[in-house]
Amino acid sequence: MRTTAPRRDRTRRGLAAGAATLTAVLALAACGGGTTPEEAAQGGGAPEGAGEFTGEYDGPAVELSYWNGFTGGDGPFMQSLVDEFNGEHENITITPNTIQWADFYQRVPAAVNAGEGPDVGVMHVDQLSTNAARNVIVPLDEVAEALELTEDDFTAEVWDAGTYDDQRYGIPLDVHSLAMYYNVEHFEAAGITEPPTDEASFMAALDALQDAGYEDPFWMPSLWPSHLMFLTLLWQNGGEPYGADGSEATLSSPEAVEALEWQRMIVDEGYSPSDVAIDSQYVAFKNGETSITWDGIWQINDLEGSGMEWGIAPVPTIFDEAAVWASSHQFFMTRQASEDENKYAAAQVFIAWMSEHSADWAGAAMIPARQSVRDEGGLEGTFQEPIAELIEDMRFLPSVPGLGTVTADALEPAIAEAVLGSLEPGAALERAQTQGAELIEQNRESFGG
After folding, report:
1. Residue 350 burial by Cβ neighbours in a 10 Å radius (0-12, 13-18, 19+)
2. Alpha carbon 303 to chain centroid, angstroms
3. Three-state secondary structure along 138-189?
4. What are the residues whose beta carbons fall under 8 Å from the beta carbon of 24, sequence distance 6 or more?
């Protein structure tokens, strides 16, 4: 899940492990005298006494607690931005608290309910709705309006993903997606002059690599990021994992079965070892043991420092539609800030400044969410620039409370068993479908709807 995206995938994987715990924590909080969904819907908005946003803060000195999960190679880039902001604003001090993403999503709700949480922070877009449903974070419609941020400066996917129940809870900072990495030396030895773009050219490349002596050119993981690969293939095949409103799971559709069969085919046809442990496919790629890997763009800086010669390209369109899994880091605000006019005003200045400086955040191998920043050359010369050119093809899971639990507890185990060969893809997805329906019903009871 943890998509950066901490740059190293194990931090994002922690989100899957913590998703069920997070849902349980939030549900218990709601049942234990916390805020009801109806009360939550009334939260947010400017506090009494807050003036019109001018782009600057001229109030008394204020300190904002800023929580994030950038513990990987992206951490120094975020810290540099915070230091720069603090240097430019004498009366605002941003105090970061950087926590592993898995711990972040468990600690934030409890800390906010205890009045000891962040004033402002960043979380993955697929966590916004769950936290919004339990009033951990507050609506930012007035903030977005004050900052003059509109859908015109973003893709519809990333802009809409920041909303829940017709209110905005996230201000997009970036977009990050899967990409295809390839070993330049291997490609040259195999006579491959261009990265493959579709199934025919991809399979031809794998055959050419094997003919050149690279026995296992494309390792298929059973775990992370296998489910991100599956979602990519499913969308390319015209399918959906869930209904748009998250009210049903469609995990065993013919399109889904065909997508998972393709993943298993990579193993059956001998292009991949049969049991690829978590992280092994990426480590193997760095060590020159495999020729191609699909992974997040958060790996760019790690590969750049590895000394190997590698290339990056969009994930090939294996089926009929150009699509690729993506996520987004988005700013949020808690009621601690929204109830204090000075913190509220200062938080707006901080979010606006970070949004405007998202070209600098591109150094963390992210894609700035704002079209205006990209148009001004914010990605020029970066490795992720060719990936960003296809931003309209990037797809997000529905913004629905608790949906991460369904993916982690129902879908991911099914993909693992099918890739490992212990269950046929159709049977694995039928089981995921049943489990998914049960979890969605539990979510409906916990979160309402």
Report:
1. buried
2. 20
3. CCCHHHHHHCCCCHHHCCHHHHHHCEECCEECCEECEEEEEEEEEEHHHHHH
4. none
Query: Phi then psi for 33, rounded to 5 degrees?
Result: 90, 10
Report how far residue 350's alpha carbon sits from residue 64's, in angstroms, rounded to the nearest whole number. Answer: 9
**Residue whose C-alpha is closest to residue 168's, from 43, 343, 347:** 43
Are the CB atoms for 390 and 110 separated by under 8 Å?
no
Would you state the pLDDT for residue 52?
A: 66
0.85 exceeded by pTM = yes
Q: What does the pLDDT look like over 322-367, one tens digit per residue?
A: 999 999 999 999 998 999 999 999 999 999 999 999 999 999 999 9
pLDDT (average), residues 30-46: 44
Strands 62-68 and 92-98: parallel
Say how far residue 42 (Cα) sits from the centre of its chain.
28
pLDDT digits 0-9 by tens, 6-16: 333 333 334 33
What does the buried/exposed string (b/e) look like for 225-243 if buried means 16 or more CB atoms within 10 Å of the residue's CB?
A: bbbbbbbbbbbbbebbbbe
Please choose, from the candidates 295, 291, 361, the residue with its C-alpha nearest in 3D space to the C-alpha of residue 324.
295
Q: At what angle do helices 125-133 and 9-31 cross, to 10 degrees?
A: 10
CB atoms closer than 10 angstroms to residue 46: 17
